[in-house]
Amino acid sequence: MFRIWRVLLLILSLAILSYARSSTGNSLLVVLDPSLSKDNYSIFFKGLEEQGYELTFRAPKDVTPAIIQDGIASFAHVILFTPETKTYAKDIVPQALVDLLSKNTNVIFALGSKQTPLTSLASEFSLILPPPGTPLISHFPERDTPATVVPIPVSFPSPALTSGLSPVWYSGIPFALGNNPLLVPFLNAPSESFAADTTEDSGADAIVDAAERGGEGLWAGKDMSVVTGFQTIDGGRALFVGGIELFSDEFAKKEVTKGVKSGNAQFARDVAAWTFQESLVLRVDGSTHHKVNETQPGDKYTTNDHVVYSTHISKYNPTTCTWEPFSGLTDMQLEFTMLDPHIRTSLPPVQGKPGEYSVTFRIPDRHGVFKFVVDYKRKGWTHLHSSTTVPVVPPRHDEYPRFLSAAWPYYVGAISTSAGFVIFSVLWLAGDDRGSRRRKGAKAE
Amino acid sequence: MLAYSLPSDISPSTFVNTASLVRIVALGLISAAAISSRLFAVVNFESIIHEFDPWFNYRATRVLASKGFYEFWNWFDPTAWYPLGRVVGGTIYPGLMATSGVIYNILHALNLPVDIRNICVLLAPGFSAFTAWATYMFTKEMKDESAGLLAAAFIGIVPGYISRSVAGSYDNEAIAIFLLMFTFYAWIKALKTGSALFGTIAALFYFYMVAAWGGYAFITNMIPLHAFVLLLMGRYTNRLYVAYCSWYAIGTLSSMQVPFVGFQPVRTSEHMAALGIFGLLQIVAFAQLIRSHVTSKQFQDLLFVSVISAAVLGMAAMVLLTYKGWIAPWTGRFYSLWDTGYAKKYIPIIASVSEHQPTAWPSFFMDLHMLTFLFPFGVLVLFRTLRDEHVFVIIYAVMGTYFAGVMVRLMLTLTPCVCVASAVGLSQLIDTFMDPREPDVGEEEEKEDGSSTTATPSKKAAKKEKNAAPVTGVGAIDDIVSTLSIAGGLEKDKSAKAKTGIFGLDTRMVVLFNTAAMLLFFVLHCTWVTSNAYSSPSVVLASSNPDGSQHIIDDFREAYYWLRMNTKEDAVVMSWWDYGYQIAGMADRVTLVDNNTWNNTHIATVGKAMSSPEEVAYPILRKHDVDYVLVIFGGLIGYSGDDINKFLWMVRIAQGVWPDEIQEPNYFTQQGEYRVDDQASKAMKDSLMYKMSYYRFAELFGGGQVVDRVRQQYLPKQGPTLDYLDEAFTSENWIVRIFQVKKEDLLGRDLKSANGFAQGKKRKRSKPPVKRRVLA
């Protein structure tokens, strides 16, 4: 009996484990270069497995499992731990990787300092990589590690990251960020760091000369990023990491200062959670609109109607794996648009109704085909977009006021003319006739 | 003395009865001819709505038939002029749809389940029969029944009218010409009899006309003009006063009930003439009253003072009202009637319509044939008698001729007048040569004196012939014709005519045979023109195979059906405005612009998108939620009415709104030629229209010479490429090409580089944005 209970408990725990943390699925393909050992990243992979991901490993040159089978993505998430790989199997080409993102598959890219297909792909994501063979170098703070292994404090507070993280050990390349609003930087290089192909002080002049000749300036400073997310227009997420060592067991265990463990393990888990659509995932459950004092949505509205627009927003909760109503957005706006927004108003959360956002407004005095547009785009968060088309029509012929006080002169005119006509007719018929007869009679006489 | 003998043993009542029977039969035959000659379109093709505007009328009629009149009145169409929408009820003349709706409901009440489409298709031929009848009535008032029959026969088959009323040409003009003629008839009748009843009938038909066609302004100005000319000729009568006032008061009040017209009759310049004449008539009538009460000298002083002051006051009021904006200034369409170059300069959208072009000379012959030269003769004949109603036709002839010369489409309003005048002229000619009397001075005069005392004209004629002619066997038809002609119109001229005339039978025969032959050729010409030129639905094209059989080119319907079946129901289709109604009617999709060209800016937006490079056009397309772009391309099959040939109008209209961004000269070569081959200008080659038209065109020729069959030019073998649009559909003969607008790139790149990436092009290594300069 006890054994049965234990088996049942095991099955239950397994079921919970296999329940994905991600909002999009739990299958995960790891493309791992043969030169890298799976064991070096055991903390990272184990963490993912514990969260319920089903990891499948594959070498870049393996033919199976294909990332896209018959036009359908085979996995919900893909990790490319192939920083130095130059040749892949036929199914992994840059175009296919972008295609993956369009199929709402999330991808983690680990870049290296060599020129590979991935480095040229990065430029499609508005990442600007330094010339090959120029890793991030920092001589500060003083430490016993080489200059290319840099402790980076997490100074950039993204809501996706756990607060109060210790500095993260990093070894790899930095990259500049292009002017693309879809980029979500997570970790920027320290101010004192720079990218160079030598760590020797004697080469410093050469670096400066090269920087001047290239016209690019020095690859240096805190505007360089080392870990950057990218959220596509459709909501697929990608993560670019300049050095794969970030995920390694060695860096995870390494101490930053005496007694303080590095933040690598937690940082890696956080960015992976963001990439795999566990955190900062929102969705619009639905939106309705109706006239004030009505409940059914109208298929059209009349100009100057008062309407209520409400939308319901949920946030994904990775710990319970459920969508929960979310009232935490305070800066959402509703636009009532025909070509241009005719009305732009804030869409505040409704007190007492979790997840509900509502606003009442008067439709402008303009007929046309309008759209209720909610377009909420914040860095890191899922972009919320909802557009509902509704025609706004002029009043019907019987919806205008019947009597206008301004028209009294006309009413009076019409009534007096009618009355005058009646009186005239009466006088004509009664008075004139008799008169003429009398006159006729007089003539006859 | 008579040229040929006439039967004398026929009673007068037999004459009258036979004559009216023949008239009825003739009218019936004319109606049948009018209807059946308009059925070429159905016989050659099928029962289908033609061209462009009729598609909207048809769609509106379906709404009316299915949802009822009030829903139709309040119909707001969100699928047209996206995203502005169109208030249909307030921007159309509902007469046509209401007519079909009434017919539809009557037929269904009689348990005749006729499809609404067939009612729409056959409405125009049906009304052409009414037009023939109305023209008969009108011409009868001008001369006599025989002229009326001739006029009815002319209007029944004349191409100038058929061009707008073949089966399937479901447009406002289909019923408007009938209403025009009948209103004129009622007006003439009212004027002749001084009857308020006929004035009211004229007003009611005027109201119907206002509800049916924007050309009602022609009546609004013709009748006042007639009244004014009569006043100037010193022909003021109380009959004129009664007729005009009853027409104007009732007609104007009722016309204001049409939502589209509203307060225009009291606020726009086009209607001011009618109002002014109304006021003038009151003054004149009042003056007449005064004159009957005061002495002549006093009256003349009074008249002088009042005329001067009234004129000054009236002018001042007009200027003030126009200045204050109470009276709208003349519209562009009106100006373009007087200055043919006006539209091209200021309102290209009006000039771009082919039926707004000035008429070419050959088209007069094409549309009117021999009536072209019978017409002036008829007017001349009218001048000879010049009764009040003749003045009307003369004014109509002058105005109609001018307007027909200015705009092709106004040929339609000229045609009835031409038919009437020609019929009067021709009937005069036939009368003269049919008249059996020969000029024999002494005898004739005696006879005239003897017969003119009898009461009714027909009796008089019959009697006279009885007296004159001994019993001999002559053809009955000749007899009746001559009886009619003598009975109808010639009494007045009789004394003058008696001294002149035609001698002998042979001279008569020569002229009459010639006339008959001309009429025959006229019929042949009309039939030929109708079947060859005016019966094409233009939705379906026809060409002939080498063996002479007909080959149907059905690309339009193929493409519209594709749209209907393969796109989202709320997909927005952008095309040049010519095809808006067809897309809405056949594909049932949302359109940006259509043939109701009420918003010039919106059309210019489409023109700008079409004439700009892709990257400029793309934001415009996205802003208007465009999903598909439709272009018409005739280069493969040689269909000359395609979008490349209309392209310059798009450029011009866009230039009118964005003169800084679009310039017409950029689309010509250095030498000022309009070319599409490798010498084409850069703006031309980059334009969206050019790219869409010739996208993958070169592939058809398999490396051979790429020929555009419309423009007879050789295109470069390397065709244009598209980055922001995808080819979605191309019809069998490439006439219709539909392109899908791509969504924004997933990664936020511009679509050109995204496309380059997808095709495997290497991107140049970009540099990081330099935020500060490096210290030297």
TrEMBL record, chain A:
GO biological process: protein N-linked glycosylation via asparagine
Pfam families registered for this protein in UniProt: OST48_MD, OST48_N
GO molecular function: transferase activity
Compartments in which it is found: Endoplasmic reticulum membrane; Membrane
Top-level taxonomic group: Eukaryota
Pathway this chain belongs to: Protein modification; protein glycosylation
OST48 middle domain residues: 289-430
Keywords of this entry: Endoplasmic reticulum, Membrane, Signal, Transferase, Transmembrane, Transmembrane helix
Secretion signal span: 1-20
Mode of membrane association: Single-pass type I membrane protein
Subunit structure: Component of the oligosaccharyltransferase (OST) complex.
Job description of the protein: Subunit of the oligosaccharyl transferase (OST) complex that catalyzes the initial transfer of a defined glycan (Glc(3)Man(9)GlcNAc(2) in eukaryotes) from the lipid carrier dolichol-pyrophosphate to an asparagine residue within an Asn-X-Ser/Thr consensus motif in nascent polypeptide chains, the first step in protein N-glycosylation. N-glycosylation occurs cotranslationally and the complex associates with the Sec61 complex at the channel-forming translocon complex that mediates protein translocation across the endoplasmic reticulum (ER).
Family: Belongs to the DDOST 48 kDa subunit family.
Protein name: Dolichyl-diphosphooligosaccharide--protein glycosyltransferase subunit WBP1
Native source organism of the sequence: Neolentinus lepideus HHB14362 ss-1
From TrEMBL, chain B:
Segments passing through the bilayer: 21-41, 87-107, 119-139, 145-162, 174-190, 240-260, 272-290, 302-323, 364-383, 390-412
Cofactor requirement: Mg(2+); Mn(2+)
Enzyme class, first EC level, given as a word: transferase
Subcellular location field: Endoplasmic reticulum membrane
Family listed: Belongs to the STT3 family.
Residue segments, region Disordered: 437-466, 757-776
Keyword line: Endoplasmic reticulum, Glycoprotein, Glycosyltransferase, Magnesium, Manganese, Membrane, Metal-binding, Transferase, Transmembrane, Transmembrane helix
E.C. number: 2.4.99.18
Ranges of residues in domain Oligosaccharyl transferase STT3 N-terminal: 24-421
GO cellular component: oligosaccharyltransferase complex
GO molecular function: dolichyl-diphosphooligosaccharide-protein glycotransferase activity; metal ion binding
Protein origin, superkingdom: Eukaryota
Topology relative to the membrane: Multi-pass membrane protein
Domain STT3/PglB/AglB core: from-to ranges: 570-622
Residue ranges with Basic residues bias: 760-776
PANTHER family on file: DOLICHYL-DIPHOSPHOOLIGOSACCHARIDE--PROTEIN GLYCOSYLTRANSFERASE SUBUNIT (PTHR13872), DOLICHYL-DIPHOSPHOOLIGOSACCHARIDE--PROTEIN GLYCOSYLTRANSFERASE SUBUNIT STT3B (PTHR13872:SF1)
Lineage, top ranks: Eukaryota, Fungi, Dikarya, Basidiomycota, Agaricomycotina
Organism the protein comes from: Neolentinus lepideus HHB14362 ss-1
Record protein name field: Dolichyl-diphosphooligosaccharide--protein glycosyltransferase subunit STT3
